[in-house]
Amino acid sequence: xxxxxxxxxxxxxxxxxxKGGVGKTTCASSAGCFLxxxxxxxxxxxxxxxxxxxxxxxxxxxxxxxxxxVRNLSAFEINANKALSxxxxxxxxxxxxxxDTSTYLDSEDIDSVFTLPIPGIDExxxxxxxxxxxxEADFNKYVVDTAPTGHALRLLALPGLLDDWIKIMAKMRWxxxxxxxxxxxxxDPDEGDDFLxxxxxxxxxxxxxxxxxxxxxxxxxxxxxxxxxxxTERLINGxxxxxxxxxxxxxxxxxxxxxxxxxxxxxxxxxxxxxxIKKKFGGLKTTIMPLQSRDVKGLDALHIFKxxxxx
Length: 311
Ligand SMILES: Nc1ncnc2c1ncn2[C@@H]1O[C@H](COP(=O)(O)OP(=O)(O)O)[C@@H](O)[C@H]1O
Ligand SMILES: [Mg+2]
What we know:
The protein has 311 residues and is an alpha/beta fold. The chain has a domain at 13-81 and 137-165 and 215-310: Rossmann fold (3-Layer(aba) Sandwich). Helices cover 55% and strands 14% of the residues. The protein has helices at residues 24-35, 52-56, 80-102, 107-115, 121-136, 149-184, 191-211, 226-241, 261-280, 299-310; strands at residues 13-18, 41-45, 65-66, 73-77, 141-145, 216-222, 248-254, 285-290. It has an 8-stranded mixed beta sheet with strand order 3-4-2-5-1-6-7-8, with helices on both faces. Helix 3 crosses helix 5 (121-136). It is elongated, with a radius of gyration of 23 Å. The N and C termini lie close together (9 Å). Magnesium ion (MG) is lined by residues 24-25, 47, 51, 145.
């Protein structure tokens, strides 16, 4: 059975996640090619170890680029550090204002606080780029190649962490506001307040999008091996905790042909794992992807893979 429902109009964002090396990038690139048949599609990677360029066989960077040879498909690889630098540059004054008016820090201390990392802000900026792109609505479908499980789950926890950070900042502001109101009678919200309000909205938008089953789908990718299955379980449970329900699972690298002793043994072993997966994740639709004799790289290989994965 192939992946279902990817071409539903309401579905805008499709994320592929799983252990390192199981085929996330390959599935994301193939799904991108499939969707581009009917929709203007953007494929992008939030894995710091980007590999879309290798998968598609053409150079992609941190600017949106049309893919040569696939009409309607563009791609890019998010550079979280760059997004963070841009964010800091844009918001330096506002953040410093909050610290200046809400704490007893002097300007030297404030400068050093500013250089400290805000927890998760770079990843959130990566997600923010996605949300901005979706709002700009230049594309109909967005396919996301995520980083291996641990990183992806941390990423999903970040809007929450950032939300806590915003709450603390807002609390400090309230004290300041109270003082100003007490002494001068009134308080006009300043750019610090605007900034916190805007950040709060961004974090909420990201959370809302990820949890919206109509607009967003997270597809787990695994292989029939013990370690990968354990990690898949961690991923699915972790996602559930953030209110994201996984309904489809790709089991990749399944050996289909070969009658030699090695192949027979391998097939037997894989069958055991596949049965185990089906039992463990009974409610999920599973798509079995055969192990290819060569790496799935370049558009020709992706087109073959796409037919099996999505038709
Ligand atoms: N079904 C398959 N058969 C053969 N090679 C595969 C298959 N799926 C993926 N590969 C290859 O395995 C390697 C890892 O796949 P990749 O998609 O980069 O994994 P991930 O993104 O999960 O780390 C790549 O070289 C890819 O071409
Ligand atoms: Mg990858």
